[in-house]
Fold each of these.
Amino acid sequence: MNNRQVQHELELFKLAKDKLRKDLRKAQEKNYGSSTNFSRDFIRQYVQPFAKELVKATGKRARGRATTSAISLGFRKMQELFEYLVDPEMVAYISMISILDSFYTCEGSKPKVQEGFKKIGRRLEDEMRNEFYYQRAPEDVVAAIHKRNNTKESTPSYRRQGAKQIAQKLLVNKYDWTKEELFQDWKDSDRFHVGAFVLHVAEGFGIVESYPLRQGKKQQTYYRLSEPVKAQSIIFQSELEQRAFFRYPLKDIPKEWEVESGASRHNNSGGYYQAWIRTNLNLCRSFYSDTEFGTDAINLLNTLSRTAWNVDHTIYNLAYRCLEKGYSIGSLNAVFDHPRLHEDMPRFLEAKPKSDPLRKEWRSETAQIHQAHREAVTKSRNTRLALNVAKDYLKEPRFYLSWSCDYRGRMYPQQSFLHQDSSDFERSLITFSDGCKLDKSGEEYAAQAVGEAFLGSKVNYEDRSKWTYQNKELILAIANTPLSLLSEWSECDKPWQFLQLALEWNRVVLNKQKALWDVPIGADATSSGLQLLSAMRRDPDGMEFSNLFAPKDINDPPRDAYKEVLKRARHKAYRDQNHAWLADYLEERKLGKIVLMTVVYGATPQRQKKEIKEHFIDKGLYPSKIDKHAVSYICTILRESAREVFPMAFEAMDWIKDLYGIAQKNGNTSFTWKTPNLDSINLLKVEQISKRITSSYLGKITIPLTEIKEPNYNKMKTSLVPDFVHSYDSCVLKSSFQDWTKPLTVVHDCFKVLPNDMDLAKKRIRHGFYKVCSGDPLAQLADDLGVTEEQLPRLKQGTGCLEEVLNSSYMFN
């Protein structure tokens, strides 16, 4: 066992534990105790029984001399509250959040009792006001309130005040409501009494306890979390800290996975060195599936784990400069600065009445700037985290990633950062540790990679490399002063990967300052789901449009299925007199992609219509030019055209849905099939009856209503097609690379290697694909699910020749 890696893991454990403690202390100091992990878990467990206790207490009659006490007055207001907030669990949820914010705090942050009472009352009043308007106000007012309540990145106070003001202005000015018809704000005494009543019930329930405290001659009653709840929080935090760990890259080769019998979700033999860390990082990333992975899967995971990596210092330094300057480029999101963020309202505006147009304009513009800044901070979170992790590995001679599979067999790194299964920017942050001295073939592949990152993958190989050689001066200039030439590269297809490749091309090929090329270059499948189904069916049309055949001319570009779908959709529109005008709007490749790329994954027409609508909104064409009827028509003809381009693949998807129905009727509660790599894939999705509580200002929570988890047949029905396809696209990679000995990484169904290794990698991928699609995988699926040919006749295969795949140029490109 490597002592350096063990020490590294212990340091990551300590860092994670310290962060948990810091986050807890920060939440308690700021009176946001409800945001802690313990509080969320506590509320989830007890919100239902506490709601019952509130209902029970509110149902009692106030008697005797106590009718004028704070608790009795609060009781009456609570009865009024329940008339509007008919869901007691909403009342309990808001009450528990407020109690934890007030009393799950540091000693120095405890509020006065009166403040705690009023906080509970005020928050319940806010929810009651919202419900009052939701029930009584016109639709446009309700929509305006809802929009303000859901303003992203704004504070609860801003949303609360904004929603209140919008409702009042619209109802008074537009609908002539009188002040008496508006929601009547509570008095401070009402808030106090409601809070006192809730805390009285909470004390009886055991959440808080009261205690007397003498100050001078007076003795007052105070509240704190009860001792049992405190003990529960300490135990919860202790268990949380024991599991704490930052999943950062390893400094030595990960522990190898071993083949174990039984469900792979119980196999934690590989990855990090410490057994207690591996307990929660199993080979199969599923809590329920009984998928079992065989030797090929284990071999490929271990192969991927042996690939060593480095941080790209040049990209790292450039990214930090972009952050400092506030430049957002592609998936690198920076936080901008603006003078208004630090300025108070000018005095001449402050002196004007609040209704003055100039003053209102200044406030509106400033609010928009602050809103945009908050959104930028949120968007930049991943960028900043990735750079912080990269900083820790700048001086490492090499680092490693550990890998595992989802239940379908697709492979993913176990680390959160510094891997290729991420954004364009994060991919550019790392390189292989081991490079290659480019040979003639390697240089050509490197040139193609530079051109492809700039132009996109739908131009032929010759044009990609031609662009690189013809733009030598541009590449030199970008490499020398990348930030001065942002406009030349920031809008290209993959800006950060292009920049990384251009810098490497400059160092290795143009200036020859560096002997070895170490930036990964990749090859991606063409519509992998439809490609696999077309090959399984031997569909000559689908195989052609997914580039499984060799091009007729060596210089032909790859077939573009998305554009073919658009072309056919345009012809349909032209032939329809009522919709011929729409043909002019069916030019952008993205429209074809919306339908074709998602159909294998169970996308419904409703979802596709929504994405088409969003496309035209972005173009400024909806609803002025393209209305909802046009969107519906476009979706219909795109789906029809997609079926024409891949006829037998669509037939296969329909057949698999029928197969599912029969298998379920046969009594299957989960669905298991064997892959060509001898993995046993188990599709099992479960559901627990639960309830979603969504408050206007205090977030939402899902609470379980039963302990039993039942099979979710609807989810499994929509999952079978994509899961079957994914189990096979991962098979292609396992069959191709399980004994690979050179640098390698995979991202879903694509791979990345060094340029000199691309010829061999593509040869292997063609043979792996051929092996996986040989025979009749769809018939085998039906057999594995226990459906006889009498119950469901097997699909006939077409005339496409699978052997031609071995000569394909663009099946992965």
Amino acid sequence: MICLSLQKLEFKALLRAVNHAEMSEIRLDLTEMSLREISKLFSKETNLIATCRIDIVGKEACIEKLTAAISGNWPGKKSKIKKYVDIEFDAPADYREQITAMARENGFGLILSYHNFSNTDPFERLMDITQKCFDAGADIAKIATTAIMTEEGTRTLKLYKHFPPEKLLAFSMGNAGKFTRILSLNLGAPFTFAAPTGELATAPGQPLAEEAKAAVSPKSYPHKINFKSLTPVIKAPASKSHAQRAVIAATLARGITNLYGYTPCNDTEAAVELAKKFGVEVKYSQKRGQLTIKSPGSNAISLEFAKSSTPLQFNCVESGLLSKLIIPISGHLSPSREITVTGKGTLLKREYKGVAEVVEKIGLNFESTDNYLPAKITGEIKGSNIQLSGKGGSQLVSGLLMALPLCPESSKIELEHPTSKPYIDLTLKTLRDFNVKITNNNYSQFVIPGRQRYRKKIFYQIQGDWSSAALMLTGAAISGNVTVKNLAINSSQADEKILDILRLAGVEMEVTEGPKYLIMCGDVPCAFRDNPEDEDSCSGKVEIRGGKGPLNAFEVDATDSPDLFPPLVVLAINCEGESRIKGVSRLYNKESNRAETLYTEFTRLGADIEIDGDYMIIRGGRELHGGYCNSHGDHRIAMALCIAALKIKEPLHIDNMECISKSYPGFLNNFKK
């Protein structure tokens, strides 16, 4: 049930709002009404809460207002209408006893509330406060804390495991705690609060009424997912991480480059469209996934851009990697032109904190609003010695590694706290393949000679995507035998680590390693000539013999491979015992806040998940149930939910499946209908 929290409205407006709501909380301390109007309002046959805070209007005024509310007509014994009075649990004892007695005499329930507007208390204290509320006679205990991080919101929700959920309102205030308000309903809360408009919200992070209604409406979840098995053979799509790097490298290389194994998705197509904006010719043939890029080279591109002073706009759509690659590269185009880097959807919600300070060291000005795109870039890139932190990921590091070799001056990057090292390896591999040389000193220092040029690649292999494969391999592990092909074994991709984790969980598998590089037979790769019907760019494959018995709980560090979190959560849910995944700090600035979304959506389905610092703890072995899930516009969340559905008896209903086109448009074709 959605309870509309009302304040600052005149009497007639309050009546109209109450008439259209399932339930309403009237903030008597924040609303100007006569005692007669209060009594009349609370005589209505509708679900109502009378709330008045001593710290706002004082004890005597609260007694007057609450007495007027309670003295109105109350529901009869057979009525389903609920009316409550809400007072602070630590209010003076005489006041609390007086209001409680009146409420009992007049058929009102009692809500005792605790609010922390600064932070979230330790869990032991929250337990103690909740118990004190019930000991004092509360029909409902309301515990409202303030979350600064997702973990704090999950701490408050943990109360639902220890008290009758139908008697508990436990949630967190603030933007970081907003997710707890709707999720509390899934955990059994009798209702949650919402605001009629943003200006009339009575607490920070309170959702709008329309937003809350949509969240609980089945109509908001049109995609029914009820798959129970995968197709026996699955071809992994191209790695979008590798493809985007290769497209940019080919764009900067003079001549014709042929990429093999390319499969389109929204992120890679965004890179292709950017290449075209650079004046590059691009042709795609679905046969063998051949992408041909004809470029005049980086020098000619810069000279052409310098002919005009008209502002430029580069749209990275929803690709965080592409935006971080193009920001430094933009510095080579034209110092006299203002360049705007923008995107759409989830990319506009991702924070670019620290980018301005880094690119300033190479001569660029990065101007944004509150560290979000769109951002304006001006200036001319120059080689430099740069110090930066890698805690936030490696995407900007990759952008610098791709842009700085083109500068006249040599450069050096000093990297503190490097993360996502395999993605740095993938960037360095791509650069080597295109004849760009960089010395990597244990990821803490990168020495970059200047005046280098990208060289075309007549034939270049795009690896199959281990991030997508990880989802399918996890699905196979929990459901049945599947072979995933078109994979490069022992690649530079971070998510190939899924093989080690599956082995740790006790999954039986056979890994076949093919040639690491395309060997050419004339103008055609030999693999294609020898097997004309086989258009796999990579000949490696993994055969999973799954679904045969209980899997083992595991503990892993996914700091360098954060995209593995969604399949690992699904895997852990299907393991016996407690699994621990490190690297939660890497999840907050993805397409969604994945710490929040993974916790929220799988908790909705009955999973036992906890966040403790940098660890996500999953207690597996319990059966999930069907339900309504929000993908949050995040392709990996949507796909992980589909994989989890393989072991759920009831169907799932998901709001948005279009988002999977960001990385894997053909994902749903891998399920047996």
Amino acid sequence: MTTTESPPITHAAQSRWHMSMHIIRSWLSAWEVYPIVLIAAFLRLYQLNASEFDEDQTMVFRMARDALVHGLLPATSNIASIRIVNPPGVIYLLMLPAAFSANPLWAVVFVALLNVLAVLLTYIFTRRYFGRLTAVLAALLYATASEPVFFSRFIWQQNMIAPFVVLFFFALFWGVRERRKGWLFPALFLLGLLVQLQETTILLAIPLALAILLAPETVRWRDLAFGLLSLVLIFFTYLLWEISTNFFDVTVILNFSKLPSHIDNIALTYYRDFFSPYDRLPTNTQTLLYQLVLVLSWLRRILLVLVVCGFATAVAGIVLSFTRSNAVRDGSGKHEAPSRISRIRAGWTRFWRWWTNFRAEPVRSGLVVLLTWQIIPLLVLSRHAVPLYPYYLLMLMPGPFILIGLFIDRFAAWLRRPERRWTITRYAVYAFACLVLIAQVLGTTAGLIDEVSGNNKHGLSYNTLGSLQSALSQADQLAQQRHLHHVYVTSDQFTQVPLRYLAEQMRTPTTVFDATHCLLLPNPAGGPAVFLVGPYDQFALFLLRQYATATLIDRPARLGGAPFSLLLVQPLLQTIPGTSNQSFAHHLQLLDHQAQSLTYNSRLLLVTRWQFLRSQQPVYRTTYTYAITASFNAVGSTAPEVRSLCVATSISPGDQLIATFPFPISTLIPRSISISARYIVTHPYDVTVGPIHLENIRDQGSVPVTLQTMGGSERIMLPWA
């Protein structure tokens, strides 16, 4: 029997192993990490079902889920504020939680955990390059700051950049501070990922370029090649999309770049809000935050002073370290004639020696990169042609908190010098830092409790995931308990996208429809059905009272606003089927022989009632629209046409459609009404490139089908009641 001896472990390998274990043990023994992570996790994970869930949040998550379910390759994400489509980076990241559940709550948890990771990375980064006390202060301030916590608690691509920003500067400091090779490849990859999540992070290319200039000896051609290749890979599908649209988004950006720009302090104000957010003190006496008005007003001023001192500390560190360094002198002893060329050459030589001497100190180079990160993007964004938004400044976090920690650490170290035995003053500085942290924790916690408890009131454009899921769940349970066959859900422009997605997870067949102009009713022969009516869909409740028997079962709560209405609905049996020429073949059967009118909010409305003749099942991101147009025929006058758009996620034969039209002001009462209709199916605009099916945010409508009667006419005439 032959035995093979394993090669002996070398002394170098043993040293590396012991060094790795020593580093791990030292980090595990850093007790302060555990409370920092616990505080960050609590503030970001507490009652996450109160997370905002509107159109943007719905679309990026459902695109991730649809890509997995339907085998699509994401090419874009949602639409940016300047109306271009964003790259698909956020979709690929959200495919991780979407692979395990269709419930968006897990995506919210994923976003929150990424931001908890950002706090931990802030501690590790700052401790490695600026010291332990600086790391503790920076991480605690970042973990408890109100604005970073706010942007950690809902699904959005900008909310996911925090850990990647810290990793990006880890890569830069790997080259600038440690002068190690191999940093450029991960830096380029992380910059590309950041641009995918928020386009304004392209400004971080400035500190990247500066890092190359400060440590050129660490740059390798293969790192550049790998970095560029990684950018091509992560932008590949987005490039395919741009090619398929003839670079439409590039054209939009170029057009915006030609707009007149102006300079203001909006970027600086938003930057200040991230570390000192209480510019507008709370006025609602019912909130916990209102009880802390005095503390918050004091905290805002103190934090601003601390950040300014942090900037001054970094600048002083650069200047003092450079003045103490020895300038490299020219010892050649040669003196050339003072020609113009020689003067230029001498000037360049002096500059090059100055620059070489300047970048020779890694600590100084690190401070330069830190200040460039915080200052240059602010200056660039201060001159803008399009509106700025607070989330543009997320790429600068956690910079201000690192600067605050740096100032307090250096000031305490200055007081600790042997020639200055100011022990009481030094401990007073520590106590002051603790008071600032306590005040910030109180303010952020109070604001969080106000938010999740509903103390902060919301309008119709803000909805939370928990409120929507709870209301739909109650409707689903009611239908299951009473063995009802269908649930109908009203929606408006702010709720239609999230409700359409969440309704797909219900056990009972559900139709979500736009209740702005129309009302859907179940087939009278099928018995009652469950209706969930939105808090602001009062017009739908008005129509239900006119054409159905509606019994209120419950009023599901909506956080910070008016509740939903949960009803059992049975249509009234007062339909008179029309003759064959009073229907649009295979689509709509008219139920009245004459036009009806109603008055709602002192406004006269024309009402027509129809019955569906076709069936359309729910399909992801697909809606079915009937665009019904009414023309008024009056003696001696003409009136403009009015239209009613009736949009639903599914259609069942026998169900009823109540279409309403606003009666034109100053129009005589008509003798008759002329009705025409078109049918449109809206579905995702998925682009196919060879075998690749690209998913994107855009939708497209089918060619509108003009409906006709059995006799071939495109209009139905109705006498006025």
